[in-house]
Design goal:
Strand content: 25-35%
Structural class: alpha+beta
Strand order of the largest sheet: 1-2-3-5-4
Largest sheet: 5 strands, mixed, barrel
Order of helices and strands: EEEEHHE
Number of domains: 2
Oligomer: single chain
CATH topology of the largest domain: OB fold (Dihydrolipoamide Acetyltransferase, E2P)
Distance between the termini: 22 Å
CATH architecture of the largest domain: Beta Barrel
Radius of gyration: 21 Å
Helix content: 25-40%
CATH class of the largest domain: Mainly Beta
């Protein structure tokens, strides 16, 4: 995925970029552009190519598919597996329980695991998946 934006802040190798509000940006799809309308869509990127960057420059940023896939698996796979475990837990230890109890325990396990994954990611955020590839203009 390739995006363009304007550099807002530079802290060493960590760059904060504002994505064009008027462009149809894939990066801002998560909030359905509700935040972008007021503040702009901010993305953190790295400068692995050691480009000479200044605040206000228009740059192109790219991401690879592997980090996105890894983050998606970390976010979605544990809750799904915990739902299955919760469903099986009730079935093994309480065989007389109905489908509602099994689904309920699966949902409890799912939300508990999703909360744990959320807290773990807040404490240890993933690496920057965007990198600045080139400077487009001033």
């Amino acid at each position: 995925m390739t995006e363009t934006g304007i550099i807002r802040e530079i802290n060493g190798n960590h760059i904060v970029i504002v994505i064009d509000k008027f462009k149809n940006s894939d990066a801002c799809f998560g909030c359905m552009k509700t935040e972008c309308k007021t503040r702009g869509c901010f993305i953190a990127a790295g400068n692995t190519k050691e480009l000479l960057l200044r605040i206000g420059q228009t740059v192109e940023i790219k991401t690879k598919d592997a980090p996105l896939l890894r983050q998606s698996l970390i976010a979605f796979l544990p809750p799904i597996l915990s739902f299955i475990a919760g469903y099986a837990f009730i079935r093994i230890f309480f065989p007389e329980a109905g489908e509602g109890a099994r689904a309920g325990m699966g949902a409890i396990f799912l939300f508990a695991t999703a909360f744990i994954v959320y807290k773990a990611k807040k404490r240890n955020p993933p690496e920057e998946i965007y990198t600045v590839t080139r400077v487009i203009g001033e």
